[in-house]
Amino acid sequence: FTGVDAPYEAPLHAELTLKNSELPVEQCVDQLVMALTAAGALSGHAMPDGLTPPDGGVHINRITTAPEALLARRKEAETLPKVPLTDIDVNWLQVVGEGWAAPLRGFMREGTLVQTLHFNSVLHDPNNVTGDYNSATTDWMQSSFPRERVSSPVPIVLPVTDFTRRQIAGAGAVALTNAAGVALAILRSPEVYELRVRELIHRTFGMTDDEHPYVKELLKPGKDYAVGGEVELLGKITYNDGLDAYRLTAEELRAAFKAKGADVVYAFQTRNPTHAGHAFLMKDSRQKLMARGYKKPVLWLSPLGGWTKASDVPLDVRVKQHQEVMAAGELHPDWTVMAIWPSPMIYAGPTEVQFHAKSRRAGGASYFTVGRDPAGMPYSSDGPGHEEGDDIYHPDHGRYALMSSPGVGGMQFLGFSKVYYDKKDHTMRGKDESRPDDFISISGSKMRKLAALAAKPCPPTIPSDLIASKCIPPGFMVQKGWEIVSDYYIRQKTGDWVPYSKQLGGLPLAPNMRSSAEQPFGKVAFTAHFVGADGAQISPWHNLALYPTASEPSFVNFVCEIPRGATAKLEVQKEKPFNPIMQDTKKGALRYYTYGASFFNYGMLPQTWEDPAKKGFNGTVGDNDPLDVMDLSSRTCKVGEMRKVKILGDLELIDQGELDHKIIVVDAEDPLAASAASA
Question: What is the DSSP annotation of 70-101?
């Protein structure tokens, strides 16, 4: 070679000259890569940090962090029409805002949704040669399209009601708000379209089961439309549930991998506690990667953090159990990063697992470990050709579909079949058919039953019927991890758990209100007490005055229960001492208004009562509550705040034979008060 074993001979007509005596190595490499790319010799996307790039080659981060910009956008959000979000919507907002669905930059517009449903992929224009195709309103007559296509397996949509559709009509931007009415993001150039829910269900899930947990969420009445558009997060989304330290953005996660010296990252998703079978898959994957020549494979242990069905193990239980598995060295902290992945679970089997892998590429994973029946579940009801409890998807199809799917880029997969407990050496592994009696299948349902029984370690001779023996074989799970799981199943109905990533706190309370930090807004036990000047508890119903002054009968005191824009159904509790404000529940679940963001503050008048013994219009009776109030002021009140208001009128509603008065008022200091005629 010239310059190596022979004198250097400069080329006569060099295509590229690298002045390595003047430039650092990194710049020389960049120039070489650019030249090879221009010549068509390289394909794919750049990997500046040495890790796999996200789909589309562009890192998406829609979080506003600069203090001045953040302040300006929050002020802007106060002036915009509101689109209220459910818990699931907040999870999806975090997914798109932090870049986990790259190159998506917001909720899907209709054209993007159609491509996703029919192709499991979307067209992408990284160089914007088609006029901002990726954020343009859907044009059904468009004839020129970009040619690059990237994976997009699952629909990420923002369902809204007709009420919300009419509220935001013509707006150039809208504010996305949580249950407390706090703006989490701004969505630009909203595209509102009819949400064809049945088509979405059939194309995504490929089955009919209206009791399927995520399908049931999609079929909730009233959400007949969807809003698409690009989002700007108003700061990083947090949940205040004690787990935010494990919620790393894609950029933070990639930095964590590099800090451990990773030369390759492999991901394993779990929505269950980690037992020895899972650990076997993760440790064996690491050995396979080292056999391929990698020096420092780093595992991303990524518990799914978003919404899950009620029967799944809560997020906080899983995270604590994973911590014990790592502390015991089963998955060593030197080569493991545990970070919550923010997506909801939709239980769509082979379709969904493609999204699980795609999203891990955004975090830098080059390999994805996949086992049996990923993202699958049984039918939740009987139907044509199936019975409740039958597997919706074949256990082998998800793994096969993922490993053979288009649009995976350079990602590779480490597939495994079912593993069993080996009674001889107390490990989990594939079954040795030459000695089948030595292997026990420990399913998820069997593990749950054993945990609920507080199963203790088995004797040296391990019985075949673990349930009858109420024992757990040695090595199945690290002991402290097993204690955490068992404690959950024993106290499942009485404990205070974090089921999934659900925002807690953030509800604006008036200075005269007191609540417990241990039971913040968002939990069933949240309670806001009224206190007097001396700090003692008082009743807003019995102790506060109805009239500010006796000389102004057109003005009364209004106590705010629900601030304008909030969707949590908060109200004074008649049956509890001192009548605190709590959120209503139904069958143990918190209740929310679902029609849209309210345009008024809602509350009650102290010292009033709708008497059920008195008959009113058409024989109706009072509803046994204080008089309800709708405050039309431009000012948003705080929970428990008392304001002097002017009475404008009375709206009477009939609900199941009861007459419910809604007193219409406006704040005495609002500009409208001077011009509005009193009732």
Answer: HHHHHHHHHTS-EEE--HHHHHHHHHHHTTTT
* Per-residue confidence (pLDDT) for residue 557, from 0 to 100: 97
Alpha-helix runs per DSSP H in 39-82: 67-78
**What CA–CA distance (Å, rounded) separates 276 from 274?**
7
State how far the alpha carbon of 251 is from the alpha carbons of 261, 298, 362, in Å.
16, 16, 9
d(CA 523, CA 240): 12
At 45, list the tokens. Answer: 């996307």
- pLDDT-flagged residues of the chain (< 50): none
Cβ partners under 8 Å of residue 103, min gap 6: 54, 55, 56, 58, 60, 124, 126, 134, 150
Pairing of strands 367-370, 412-415: parallel
Secondary structure of 208-235 in HEC code, one letter for each residue: CCCCCHHHHHHCCCCCCEEEEEEEEECC
Please give the Cα distance from 187 to 16 (Å, whole number).
45
Residue 156: the pLDDT is 98
pLDDT for residue 3? 58
Q: How far is the C-alpha of 649 from the C-alpha of 678, rounded, in Å?
A: 7
Distance between CA atoms of residues 132 and 113, nearest Å: 17
CA-based radius of gyration for the chain = 29
Distance between CA atoms of 388 and 209, rounded to whole angstroms? 9
Decide: 613 and 628 in contact? Cβ < 8 Å.
Answer: no
Q: How far is CA 68 from the centre of its chain?
A: 27
User: Do 376 and 349 form a contact (C-beta atoms < 8 A)?
Assistant: yes
Structure tokens at 565: 């824009």
Q: Distance between CA 524 and CA 527 in Å, rounded?
A: 9
Determine the Cα–Cα distance for residues 652 and 616; give it in Å rounded to an integer.
11
How deeply is 25 buried, as exposed, middle or buried, from its count of CB atoms within 10 A (0-12, 13-18, 19+)? exposed
Whether 337 contacts 257, CB under 8 Å = yes
Residues 678 and 646 sit within 8 Å (Cβ to Cβ) = yes
Long-range contacts of 284-291 (CB under 8 A, 24+ apart): 284/416, 285/367, 285/369, 285/414, 286/335, 288/414, 289/264, 289/367, 289/414
Give whole-number Cα distances, 630 to 334, 431, 514, 553, 665, in Å: 58, 67, 24, 18, 6
Q: How far apart are the first and last CA of the chain?
A: 98
CA distance 579 to 536: 13
- Consecutive H or E run containing 302: strand 297-303
408 Cβ partners below 8 Å, 6+ apart? Answer: 151, 354, 357, 358, 402
**Which letter, b or e, does each residue of 267-304 get, where b requires 16 or more Cβ atoms within 10 Å of its Cβ?**
bbbbbbbbbbbbbbbbbbbbeebeeeebeebbbbbbbb
Phi/psi for 456 (5° steps) reads -100, 165
CB 553 within 8 A of CB 624: no
pLDDT value for 107: 98
User: Of 57, 100, 55, whose CA–CA distance to 233 is shortest?
Assistant: 100
**Three-class SS state of 642:** strand
pLDDT at 128: 64
User: CB of 107 within 8 A of CB of 92?
Assistant: yes
